[in-house]
Write a structure and sequence with these properties.
This protein has one domain. Helices cover 70% and strands 0% of the residues. The protein has 205 residues and is mainly α. Its main location: membrane. This is Acetate transporter. It is found in: Membrane.
């Protein structure tokens, strides 16, 4: 095992938390599995809390993009759980379809901004953020229209998004462990430039 504290990077943990939570939720959206506590528990702890902590650590790394992404999507998972829990606890009424659609479309707007920022990173970063933007748009349309088929379509598209984040995390974990790229992520290269070896994480300050 290789242990080098200088190379420790919280983005890999945040990506895995995002990816696994997204896959589980969209297995439900695609009507492959029913909603269950495994989805909400993973979303709250791994998608929410762990991602948020990764974002705080990215602040210490002076990585504005990583901090914003992980803290924001960590907060999204926590807020999504609260949307479900608050009406069941009798503290707030459930959101109307229009309000839920607006909530999801605002997240689509934020994600579209992040997707533009990902153009400075690898092709796999772009797949994650652009597919996530489309996922929020589809889920917002499903909420407003009330058409279950849109949820199913969003579910399968969300599986692509979640697995792409897991793949990206795996590529960065293995690259850090072995000291060279193992899984390709499509880093842009200019003439005569050698591939990145160590830091395969988007770092925009």
């Amino acid at each position: 095992m290789i242990h080098n504290n200088a190379d420790a990077n919280p983005a890999r943990l945040g990506l895995v938390g995002f990816g696994m939570s997204t896959v589980l939720l969209n297995l439900h959206n695609a009507q492959i599995v029913p909603m269950g506590s495994a989805i909400m528990a993973t979303g709250l702890v791994f998608g929410g809390l762990t991602q948020f902590i990764a974002g705080v650590m990215e602040y210490g790394n002076r990585n504005t993009f990583g901090m914003t992404a992980f803290m924001a999507y960590g907060a999204f998972w926590i807020s999504l759980a609260m949307l479900l829990f608050l009406p069941q606890w009798g503290l707030m009424p459930a959101s109307s379809p229009a309000l839920m659609g607006g909530y999801l479309w605002l997240w689509a707007l934020f994600t579209a901004i992040m997707a533009v920022g990902s153009l400075a990173a690898s092709r796999m970063h772009q797949v994650v953020f652009f597919s996530l933007t489309l996922l929020f748009v589809l889920l917002g349309c499903a909420a407003v229209s009330g058409r279950p088929m849109l949820d199913v379509i969003a579910g399968y598209e969300g599986l692509l998004c979640g697995f792409s984040a897991i793949y990206l995390a795996a590529s960065e974990i293995l690259a850090a462990q072995f000291g060279h790229a193992v899984l390709p992520v499509g880093w842009p290269r200019t003439a005569g430039e050698t591939p990145r070896k160590d830091d395969l994480v988007l770092h925009i300050s």
